[in-house]
Every structure is written in structure tokens, then in C-alpha cells.
Write a structure and sequence with these properties.
2 copies of one chain form a homodimer. Chain A is α/β, with parallel strands linked by helices and about 500 residues long. Chain A has 2 domains: about 270 residues, Aspartate Aminotransferase, domain 2, CATH 3.40.640; about 110 residues, Alpha-Beta Complex (Aspartate Aminotransferase, domain 1). In chain A, about 45% of the residues lie in helices and about 10% in strands. Chain A contains 16 helices and 13 strands. The first copy, chain A, has a 7-stranded mixed sheet, sandwiched between helices. A 4-stranded antiparallel sheet of chain A has the order 10-11-13-12. In chain A, strands 1-9 form a two-stranded antiparallel ribbon. In chain A, helix 2 runs parallel beside helix 4, helix 10 packs parallel to helix 11 and helix 14 packs across helix 16. The first copy, chain A, is globular and about 80 Å long. Chains A and B meet through helix 1, helix 2, helix 3, helix 4 and helix 5 of A and helix 1, helix 2, helix 3, helix 4 and helix 5 of B.
Amino acid sequence: MSAAEQDAASEARRRIDELYSPERFGELAETWRRLLTSHLRSVESSSGKVLNWNPPEVNVREAERQLAAGEGSPVAGDQLEARFQELAEQCLSRGQNLHDPRYIGHQVPPPSPIAGLFDALGTVTNQVMAVYEMGPWATAVERALIHRWGEALGLPAGRFAGLITSGGSLANLTALLTARNVALPEAWEHGLPQEGPRPALVVHADAHYGIARSAGMLGLGTQQVIRAPLDERRRMDPDALDAILAGLARDGTPVVAVVACSCATPIGAFDSLPQIADVCERHGVWLHVDAAHGGGMIFSETRRGLLDGLARADSFICDAHKMLFVPALCAFVFYKRPEHRFEAFRQEAPYLFDPSAPAAADYDVGLMTVECTKRAAAFGLWGVWSLFGSRIFGDLVDATCDGALRLHSLIVEADDFEPLHEPQGNIVVFRHVPDWLRGQSLEAIGDANREIRRRLILSGRYYLTQTSLGGAGALRCTVMNPLTVEAHFAGLLEALRDIGRQVAGL
Amino acid sequence: MSAAEQDAASEARRRIDELYSPERFGELAETWRRLLTSHLRSVESSSGKVLNWNPPEVNVREAERQLAAGEGSPVAGDQLEARFQELAEQCLSRGQNLHDPRYIGHQVPPPSPIAGLFDALGTVTNQVMAVYEMGPWATAVERALIHRWGEALGLPAGRFAGLITSGGSLANLTALLTARNVALPEAWEHGLPQEGPRPALVVHADAHYGIARSAGMLGLGTQQVIRAPLDERRRMDPDALDAILAGLARDGTPVVAVVACSCATPIGAFDSLPQIADVCERHGVWLHVDAAHGGGMIFSETRRGLLDGLARADSFICDAHKMLFVPALCAFVFYKRPEHRFEAFRQEAPYLFDPSAPAAADYDVGLMTVECTKRAAAFGLWGVWSLFGSRIFGDLVDATCDGALRLHSLIVEADDFEPLHEPQGNIVVFRHVPDWLRGQSLEAIGDANREIRRRLILSGRYYLTQTSLGGAGALRCTVMNPLTVEAHFAGLLEALRDIGRQVAGL
């Protein structure tokens, strides 16, 4: 090595030591703590905007500018803290403020900040799974939560299986892959059958778009998704399902699964699972339930009845990062029969799964999940549960669902708002129909509502979402922030009126 | 509401306020900071065990005990901090210590702790994507990094597309789904073709198990995976590939894609991509490259040549959570032609994608990723890059790859160790063959090596992995910790000798 090469190598070593220095970490973590504490205080007290809106091009340009700054003049030791603070502040000041009580938006909660701290223990130390020995405690925490949440949901202790994966869409895909492999035992090795009628997937007509995507991904085809009709509350109609399955049986069409919802996304309708399970059992068809949103309801004394029958499903999914109020992503898949846990994937990977320790295979989660390296996603849930007990989840479910009922009442009471359903959980869909919109076509009213919403969220005063119902635009709130109280709901309606008048030019 | 109900409601409100209190967060974050700083100091100086081994059943029981404790006696205010500390210490003391320089194991790095702090900003505030308005800054950060890393990898600025997803397996699946949909345009809607020869996927014989899994998931069938032969350095043989593709063309077998590796997992072999790209272009076949591990090599002046030809691939993936040393999971998919970004999924979800803002669709990442809700996975990478410039990644790549060469030299020099290849990157596969094993069958030697490894990792003295090579067990190190230096490699060989003697009963 030349002298110049030696100099370069020791410079590189110095940079690496700085990057990994525990002392540096401690200093920056103090800045991190201070910024986040102050940020949460400010956001929870609604002192700024809910959504910090910038057009995508503007934000991308700014994010790129910072990268270029790093290239141009990497920090030397004494500038590190100031530069870290600048970058961290930018992350905090340009995002979406879910902890603001005026955030009444998507099915994504403001997580308990304490859950975030537990999650970040796994992040900083990079606890991951695939094989047990890489993440022994991460694996154990997941397994413990699968046991306890599964039992709470009605599965018999020690006689079911489960896994945690990166999000509800991936969880549904994994369960439906299992269902496909069971319904079509040759498919995994030989591909979809080339003989006979194409297999079908029968789904709640309002099922999440990820379900039809799963059919596309798994080689079934999105056109092979049969949407079962809904009743007047947008729940799957068990009689219609029965008729569909009878028809498919007559044609000899294999059915991969029936997909029910607890709850469906548009208005939060919970299917009547006991009746649907009866129909599926009669036809010998796999029942999968997408309980991504509703799975947390089990912890509410007054709302757990919404999940009656769930434990009869062959598979179902529940997202902890929805109604258990932990950071994204932490999605659970449950199988009623433990032997199904290895049906999704059937393989060997010699550099991973060690034949000298075969007993550990049941704890090598990579055998059950799409992910090979999988992050420790459940530290947050485990921490909150261990600190406060599962009662805290019931508190959160009730606070948000009670809030939805309160919002619904305000809508019912107001002359210029139209409720579009009775909330079963914490989703409320409605339209603003002030005088200036009355008598217009439903489409025009829907478009105006979308326009009002867009202007409102860009103003940063409130955050809510939109959907399409009955063929026209509508406003949609998920009461997903337990800090949102009556005054915020009243304020939301007032803000919609206000923006509405601007849209009308009044 | 009865008086009892009112009391219960205000008790619940008190618990929720405690859970979301910024002051409480600030207090616990100080404990968190103190514990993590001290943990990193202790681990980086090798003052404990690398792997804290407990049998799975023991860890699961302990994790369940803590959940039960939460159920039994949830904490009241003044016990919170002590209990938080107890739980956090448990997470830290029962895991795998990747920051210990004696961790020379899987293709998972000890991430820069500073990257962990940036990542956790997104976690605590729950910045997520799907639609741009939910995570405007998170989306911008991802887009900026896709631009800069893509350009560094040789893609022309402004004329390619990319996305970030939850891990390399999901990234490969997404890219191969795109390839499938392009090769078989009817498959997404109508399912796999029922006429003609079944489509095939031609892959590097050592490709990651996730590739064959993708074939199983996508409805092609794992048996439709054709493993292209390797040359003497375990790189895909371009001539053999050419012959395979010619044969498939003669049979009229549709080819979904060719999958090459940069690098393959077993020994870290980098394919000769220019030659493979020539073959694929000649046959008009989609080339996908799994550069999950190797993508970071582009930042090393001396090693970027390993990736020559990568930018000619139709799609490829690179994991930032491997050789860019950020926490799991942060996997990139790149498409050479931007129009392919919407080929994987083709759908509408009215409650998500707002027709009143169509221009934003290109920034609604849910249209391109399996995930609907997707966590902000790239804050860590963006933060480190913005602070230190991309040169730091070159430093880390060189430190670990130079380390691998050093380990290899020690193995070559030792009489009782047998090198099994010349490392191209930072993966080193070898066997311990002391006198007491000489003359035994390869299988017996391999089994003994596995047994030695298992005892060594359970002892906590070092951490390395195992694989199967030439039909027998072998030891496998990925030099993935930039703090690992010469003395650790020498110590590893010494420890293997030591445990070997125990296994032999000497």
C-alpha cells in the first residue's frame, strides 16, 4: 500500500468510526428526543397544519438538494449536530401530522409514541428474522403476540398458527396463496391448471383492492374474482353467496376461497361471519376474512360482537398498525389449522435453514413469510401491551368508535350534511349538500365534495379522505385519532361549510 | 350515560392521555437514549456475547410472561419509567448483536445508528405512503433516492423508474410480476395461459430461494424454473444460457425472464452482466438482476466494475439494508423503461386515488407497490447520505470487502482451513479441516463443520453462518460489520479450532 493509499484508508476508517460512534449516537439521540417531544406537543395541541402540503416536485427537489449538499460538503465533526437537526426538522415539518386531533383521515392511526420507542429499539440494533438465531427475541415477541391476540380472537390455545408480515396487502396475499395451494395442490410446483374451468375467488363486492390484486398476482386473473352482492348495509349477502357457490359447483369451477370483510373499506361494513361461515362449510370452501381494520375490536367489551364467527375462518388477517395503534407495518395472518402454516411456501435454502438444528425450523419465520430478512415489527405492540395490558386497546377502540358515532350524530342533525350509512365501527361516509348544491346531479354534488375536500386538506385545517359511493364522490372520515373530540368534529363540519362557500364563490 | 359509565370513560381518557403524553414520551425517550448508547458502547467493544442464545420455547415463555404481567397489573404513572426500562433492557439483552465486531454472519449489516434515528422519526410520527398526501415528505425522500442511486448505477437521469418496498424478496417478486405481465399480457386479467407450453423462468442456478418462490406465487410453478449452469466461479455461463434460450424458442416456450445475480448468495458470485445482457437482447427476453446484495458496490471506486452491465437489465433490485448499512427493510426496484412502473398492478381504488388530483398519481406509490400502507423506509438512507455524502457507502463497502480478502488470506495460509473460492465481494465460504477430520468423507467433514459452527454461535463468542456447497456443509462468513478487523478474523479461526477440538473430544 502506498503512503497515499494508507492516508486514504485511515481517513475512511475515521469516517466509519464517526458513523458508528456510540458517543455521537448519544448526542444526536438527545437532539432527536428534544425535537420529537416538542413536535408531538405542538402537533397534539393543533398549533400548526395537519397536512404540510407541498407539491411533489417541490418536495422531491428539496430532498434531492439535501443529498447534493451531502455530496458536496460532507459534515466534519463539529457541524454534525446542527446538520442532523436541520435534516430531522425537515422530516418533521414537511410530513403529515397524524397526532393532530384534526387528522380524521385514512385507516392509519397516530401510533402511541411509546410504541414508536419500542419499535426503534429493533431498528437501531437491526433485529431481523428469517431464521430464529438471527432474531431470537424478535421471533419470541412475535410468537407471543400471535398466541395472545389469536386466543383473544377466539382461536383455541395451542391449536392454530400465525405469522407477522409487512402490511395488510401482503398478509392477504400470503393467506390467499395458502388457500390457492390447498385448493389447487399442483399449482405451487406445476403452475395453474391448464385443464377445466379457471378457478375463481369469490369476494365481498367492496373488498380492498389488494384482494383482486392477489388474484392477479397469484396467476388466477383479476377477472376470475366474483364479487358477491351486498345487503342494504353493504355487508356480503349470505344467500347470494350461497347461490354463487352452488352455481360454481354445478359448473365444476374450483373455488380458491371466499373473502369476507371485518370490515370492508368503503363504509366500514362488518360481514355477518357466522352465516357466511355456514355457507362456506356447506360448500367445503376456504373462508378468508380480511379483518385488517376490525381485528382490534375484539378488545372492546361493547364491540367485540362485530367479530363473532371470525375464528371459524380458515384464515384471516388483522393489522396491529390499524386499531391497535402501533406504527406501520405490523400485520398478522392467522390460520385456524396449524398445518397450513407451511402451505404458502415449500422450499429449502441450505444457507439459511440449518439441518443441524431441525427443531428450530418451526421458529424460522422465513419458512412462512414472503420476506426473507424481516424486520422486528412487533416490539411496539409487545411493549404497549406489556405496560398497559390489552385493556388499553379497548380504550382506544371505544374512544374512536364513540367519536365516529358522535360525528355521525352531528351529520344527522345538520341540514346541510347527508349521512350515507350508520357507522358500525369508526368509518363515517357522508356528503356536504348546502343550499347551493341542492337539486344538482349526484355526480355534480360528488365532484363538489371532492373539490371541497381537496381544498380543505391543502389548507392544513383538517385532514379527511374521499371515496366513491353510489357512483359519486363522497367525504370519508376514519376516526383514527383517540385525541379527536367533539369540538373537532363540529369544527370539521364548519370548515367544510366555509370551504364550500369558497368553492361556490359565495 | 350512568355515573359508573362516566367514571369508566374518564378513566379510559386518563389512560389514553398518558399513552399519548409528549411529556411521558420525553421522559421515556431519555431512558431509551441512555440504554441504547450504553448498549452500543458495550456491544461495539465486544464486552458480552454476540448472539444471546436462549431456546425458542424459553424466549417465547418470557415474552408471554411480560404480556401477562401487563394484563395483570398495568402500570400506574410513577412505575412507568422503571417498567419501560425493564422491557427495553430485555429487548436489548436477548437479541443478536450485529454491532459486535465478532458478528461476521448473514447478509444483514449492523446499520449506522444515525440511520436508525432518522428511520425512527418516520416510525414515531407514522409517516406512511400509498397516496402522496399521506406521506408527502416520505414519498419525496424515496423518489430522490431512487433518482440518485439509479443514476449512480448507470441509468440515464429522468428516463427510468423505481420504487421502494419491504425487502428483497418482495422487490424480486414485484419485478418478476412486471416481467410476467409484459411477457404474458393476458395473465393479469385472465390468469396464466391454458394453451401452449407452460412459460418458463430461466435463473442463475444459485439464485436466492425467493426467485423460485416467485415462480410458485405468480402461478408459473416452481418446476418451470430452469437453472442455468454456472462456470467454475459459480457465475451464470452465458453460452449455456444462450443454448437454453435457443431451445425454449424452438419449443415455443414463452420465457418470462432471465434472472442473473449481483451477487448470488452462496459464495457471492457476480455474474458477467454484459455478456448475459447480450444473450437476452439477442433472444428478446426480459433480463432481471437480483443485485440485492451487490447494488452498494457502485459506490466503491475499486469494486464498481462488478456491476458493469447492470443498467442494461430491464429490471433489477438493490437492498439499501444490505451494503448501504441502513436498518431493514429498504429494498429498491429499478425499471430501465419508465412505462413499466405501472405494469405490475393495474387497478383503481376510489377511496384512495382521487380523481380530482390525477397529476398526483405518479407520486401515489401504492400504484406501484404490493403494499397499500407502506412505511417510510428510506429516511435512514437519506439522512446518512445527506450528512456524509455517498462516499461513506464506498468506505463501508471497501472496509468490508477488504476484510473478506483478509479473512480469505488467513484461510489460505492456514493448514487446517480450506478456502472454497476466491471472494469477489464480502462473502467467504470455507471449511475447517483439522487433522482429526482429514481423510473423512466430504459429508462427514461438512457435518462436523455445521456442528462446530452451531456450538460456536451458541457460545456467543462469534457469529457466522453455514451453507451447503458441493453437496456438503460449509462455513460461511459475510463480512458485514465495518468494525471487524484483522484480530477478529484470526480470533474466529482460533475459536473454530477450539470448538473443533471439543467436538472431536480432544
